């Protein structure tokens, strides 16, 4: 047996190189340190954690049975307001997001400075939480459904516009090049070249965003932006736990119904 064969037989297989093991150890140590610092920062009180199961059981006893009689008087109209806020806000958000989506797509808009401006607007809209938008519009227009609708609309711009621009950038260049070679104007290139390729993604985005907005419109009422969240906030402030249970059950029903409706419509359209 020669020296080369002997050296091959003496080699020991290792999954990671020494440098990789050190790097993994550093990453794991950093994660553990971050978790420990976070726990210390949020000031977790062990006594409250140990007492939590007893408090949850006591709260559930107070919430049972749900106040069914309060649904037609106060909850039903508030639920409809939440659905209206989500629907109108989604329509406004999509209408405002489409132009920015076209401007942010590099293959549609050839000017880089315009791409960056559109992307900056989409990032800005996404970075501000819906509740922050709601607080701002409540301060401007006062409490009510208008503030919630505008909050939903402006936050939807970033989500829809960003994903729509990515769908445009993933389109096949063949039909677009054929239309441009035939001398078609820009409007015709967009209408007959880009749009047919992104229609499935567009409707998927609209339905998905509406489903998200239904959930967010429920929360906006906690800051005075209309919807069933205001009924929930009133019941919580008055310690009417039976009514709180009824509101939560109604919210659960609406969320499930919206999920079923979105799934059904998506199968029919896309």
Explained architecture:
By secondary structure, the chain is mostly helical. The protein folds into two domains: 14-62; 68-269, MetI-like fold (Orthogonal Bundle). The chain has eleven helices and no strands. The chain has helices at 3-10, 18-42, 46-63, 70-104, 112-127, 130-141, 145-169, 173-181, 186-220, 228-237, 241-269. The mean pLDDT is 82.
Structural class: mainly alpha
**Multimerization state:** single chain
Secondary-structure arrangement, i.e. CATH architecture of the largest domain = Orthogonal Bundle
Indicate the CATH class of the largest domain: Mainly Alpha
- From the spread of the alpha carbons, the general shape counts as globular
**And the CATH topology of the largest domain?**
MetI-like fold
CATH H-level superfamily of the largest domain: MetI-like
Radius of gyration (Å): 27 Å
Note the topology.
Layout: H1 3-10, H2 18-42, H3 46-63, H4 70-104, H5 112-127, H6 130-141, H7 145-169, H8 173-181, H9 186-220, H10 228-237, H11 241-269
Give short descriptive properties of this protein.
270 residues, mainly alpha, MetI-like fold, 2 domains, 11 helices, 82% helix, globular
Short description:
This protein has helices at residues 3-10, 18-42, 46-63, 70-104, 112-127, 130-141, 145-169, 173-181, 186-220, 228-237, 241-269. By secondary structure, the protein is an all-alpha fold.
